[in-house]
């Protein structure tokens, strides 16, 4: 449904300015010839005047998404920003925007990012929002996540982080198996339409069982995690356009799983079980049982992913690469926006080179941004 140009006029200002600034940036970084940029800026202004929006070229999308990653202050892996691959799913679902076809494209994203264990850094760009027609979204924070079921006694079976999401999909009619690691369905929604949920096929959800190189009993704890993360709730803000569905996959660092997901007291809370297996004294904080257990759990994660042939990096390598990235950016005359609390690893922070450095989480465009606004299940009964 196209709106008349007059209705869209107010949008043209900031959108045009952001489009122009992205195009000039691509030229300044040597990706576009100067004359071509001037032509493209005029062309975009014409499209905006006529339709209130414009379509980015595949190259603008690819290079812009890479710069958005580089600009994001939360990510320690930015050293690799030039290696980001982008799938163009802007026409997925056809003119009707069919959810089933969007879902298939999400499944393809996961298969492609998995790549047999050699994880790809991959972003898929789905239809951007247009004036009067916001783009599709998924409710999921990540495409692959485990359910969290609140039990009668108040405890949680599974991942406490997803309790509200799990309750919402149960209300939509989804049923899980009731295990600690039930993979949640993907909930797709076009604003103004009913949400639809889809279960992921098993081959799109590779997982790793966690064992320890020295403790044979460790495997008996039954711990596992999905092979790689795929952030799916951030909007890609690029050249004046907003892509509300732009899932981003990359490999893990071992501390995210060992020192957060499986060990945080408000997540899987496995440190007491690990410490008991190690025979540690858990009755006193001063035995440092948590510290010893979190280290062995993280070592187990690294070992298990390596054994399974799944890409994963350790926090020492990751932080060294981050500092190299920072220095490289400086040589290119750019800053390195970063949020220290997101960059410093969850364990052994002081043994890594980022510990003594200071960062500014400056916000520049293009970028990724959280979008919490349309969680339709927030307040729902
Ligand atoms: N920390 C999040 C998780 O545990 C993933 C965030 C992105 N991490 C990454 N390595 N790309 O699942």
TrEMBL record:
Gene Ontology molecular function: metal ion binding; nitric-oxide synthase activity
Entry superkingdom: Bacteria
Pfam families: NO_synthase
Domain Nitric oxide synthase (NOS): 15-375
Keyword hit for Manganese: no
One Gene Ontology biological process: nitric oxide biosynthetic process
Record keywords, A-Z: Heme, Iron, Metal-binding, Oxidoreductase
Entries under InterPro entries matching the protein: NOS, NOS_dom_1, NOS_dom_2, NOS_dom_3, NOS_N, NOS_N_sf
Keyword Heme in record: yes
UniProt-recorded name of the protein: Nitric-oxide synthase
Source organism per UniProt: Kitasatospora viridis
């Amino acid at each position: 449904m196209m709106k008349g140009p007059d209705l869209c006029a107010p949008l043209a200002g900031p959108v045009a300015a952001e489009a122009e600034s992205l195009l000039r940036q691509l030229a300044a970084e040597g990706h576009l010839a100067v004359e071509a940029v001037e032509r493209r800026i005029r062309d975009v202004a014409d499209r905006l005047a006529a339709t209130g929006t414009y379509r980015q070229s595949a190259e603008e999308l690819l290079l812009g998404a890479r710069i958005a990653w580089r600009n994001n202050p939360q990510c320690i892996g930015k050293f690799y920003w030039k290696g980001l691959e982008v799938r163009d799913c802007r026409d997925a679902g056809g003119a009707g925007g069919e959810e089933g076809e969007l879902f298939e494209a999400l499944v393809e994203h996961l298969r492609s990012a998995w790549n047999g264990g050699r994880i790809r850094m991959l972003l898929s760009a789905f239809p951007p929002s247009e004036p009067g027609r916001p783009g599709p979204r998924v409710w999921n924070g990540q495409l692959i996540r485990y359910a969290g079921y609140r039990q009668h006694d108040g405890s949680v079976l599974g991942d406490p982080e997803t309790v509200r999401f799990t309750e919402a999909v149960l209300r939509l009619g989804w049923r899980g198996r009731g295990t600690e690691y039930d993979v949640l369905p993907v909930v797709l929604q076009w604003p103004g339409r009913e949400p639809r949920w889809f279960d992921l096929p098993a081959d799109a959800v590779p997982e790793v069982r966690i064992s320890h190189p020295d403790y044979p009993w460790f495997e008996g704890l039954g711990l596992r995690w999905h092979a790689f993360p795929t952030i799916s709730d951030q909007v890609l803000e690029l050249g004046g356009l907003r892509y509300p569905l732009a899932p981003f996959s990359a490999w893990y660092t071992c501390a995210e799983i060992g020192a957060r997901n499986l060990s945080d007291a408000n997540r899987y809370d496995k440190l007491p079980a690990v410490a008991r297996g190690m025979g540690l004294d858990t009755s006193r904080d001063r035995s440092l049982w948590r510290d010893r257990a979190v280290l062995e759990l993280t070592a187990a994660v690294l070992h298990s992913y390596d054994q399974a042939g799944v890409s994963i990096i350790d926090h020492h390598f990751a932080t060294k690469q981050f500092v190299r990235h920072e220095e490289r950016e400086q040589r290119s005359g750019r800053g390195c926006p970063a949020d220290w609390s997101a960059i410093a690893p969850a364990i052994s922070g002081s043994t890594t080179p980022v510990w003594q450095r200071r960062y500014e989480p400056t916000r520049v465009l293009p970028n990724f941004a959280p979008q919490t606004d349309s969680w339709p299940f927030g307040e729902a009964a």
